[in-house]
Amino acid sequence: MDETGFRVGIPGGERVLVPRAVKQLYTLSPENRISITIIEAVSAGGQTIPPVLVFLGKIHMESWYPENLHRNELILLSETGYSNSQLALRWLQHFIEHTALHEVGNPKLLLLDSHVSHTSPEFIIMATESNIFILLFPSHLTHVLLPLDVGLFQPYKHWHRQAVLCAIQEMDISYNLPIFMGDFPQIREQTFKESPILSAFRKAGIWPISCNTALEKLRTYSQPTQPLGPTEPTQPTLPRPITPIPTTYQDVEQGLQRWGKRVPEAFSSPSRQSYGNWLTGAARVLAAGQLQELDLQAVRQQVKNSKKKRGGRRQLQVGGELRASDARELIA
After folding, report:
1. Which residues is 4 bridged to in the sheet?
2. How far apart are CA 71 and CA 250, in angstroms?
3. 3-state secondary structure of 110
4. Which domain holds residue 21?
5. Number of domains within the chain
6. Which residues are bridge partners to 37 per DSSP?
7. 139, 112 in Cβ contact below 8 A?
8. Dist CA 36 CA 22 (whole Å)
9. In Å, what is the CA distance from 284 to each residue of 243, 244, 249, 289, 298?
10. Of 283, 275, 292, residue with least CA distance to 252
11. 188 in a structural domain
12. How many Å apart are CA 152 and CA 199, to the nearest integer?
């Protein structure tokens, strides 16, 4: 078990490729910097339980509960937006509820970081009464030992970033908490698949148990950065084949660049200049056409998103917790 934070509308940096004729490129970015905390738990068998989401606020809003939620997600409200001893205790109840039917009577081993909320007497007593043994990892070593940190939270953040960038490309810069919740089921499904979960446990050396795996990772992280030495000469690459018939804007752009370097050699100086001007103009028209097509797609998507955003300002409950299934019943 571990928790991670998301800044709802912050995608992070990215590399952008544009036609050479485009000298400057500006993109709008969502300004929503709301932070939320998500608590996840995975097992060595490749399974997971519904997540617990901690929001900063005092009122549950209808727009937080889209129809595509899996109905077992639990949303808790906090005055800070972060987990604390009380919320950790509620998560443990959630964990017990969703693992009670698995291996009835057999003990469970719960791997945690050493946060103070995991060492409170109430937390330990509740775990012991439910036949759960707690193992705390040393501070500052969860990135080496805890499977969620080792192999799952990074792709979790990646798929969230992709969702925000997709919204930006569609010119939807109002990426807020309701939109995030609409994307959340897909983000989570892309992250918590059986194979990556098993891989995370294996890379952490937790299961199958491998002390050498963990020790090797510690050695890797502790090694100083070595300066890059001279690189070996690479094998020459074969020339590209003749440009095929273009089918996309990118094909046309690449063709203009390739033939723009070859054809002018046969021209006289004045013709070469005219041909160069023509190539520059063609590239600009090509770029403008591609941007117009993207704008059209973005407008269509905005119309689709606006239909989803209608309503949703209704208040469902003041304070406390709310399960997605209960919220959908209140909305109905």
Report:
1. 38
2. 43
3. strand
4. 2-220+307-331
5. 1
6. 5, 54
7. no
8. 37
9. 20, 22, 12, 9, 21
10. 283
11. yes
12. 9
Q: Is residue 250 part of a domain?
A: no
Residue for token digits 């969860």? 142
CA distance 233 to 252: 32
CB of 36 within 8 A of CB of 66?
no
Confidence of residue 178 (pLDDT cuts 50, 70, 90): very high
pLDDT digits 0-9 by tens, 82-98: 778 999 999 999 999 99
In a domain, 148, yes or no: yes
Which tens digits make up the pLDDT trace of 221-276? 766 666 556 556 566 665 555 556 777 777 777 777 777 776 666 677 777 777 77
* 284: its two tokens: 């600009």
Amino acid at 331: I
Q: What is the 3-state secondary structure (H, E, C) of 183-238?
A: HHHHHHHHHCCHHHHHHHHHHHCCCCCCHHHHHHHHHHHHCCCCCCCCCCCCCCCC
Residue 224: what pLDDT? 65
In a domain, 256, yes or no: no
| CA 301 – CA 298 distance, rounded (Å) | 5
State which H helix or E strand residue 35 sits in.
strand 35-40
pLDDT score at 194: 98
Residues in the chain: 332
From the CB of residue 11, how many other CB atoms can be counted at a distance below 10 Å? 19
CA 95 to chain centre: 23
Q: Which token pair is 208?
A: 């199958």
Answer yes or no: are the C-beta atoms of 286 and 256 closer than 8 Å: yes
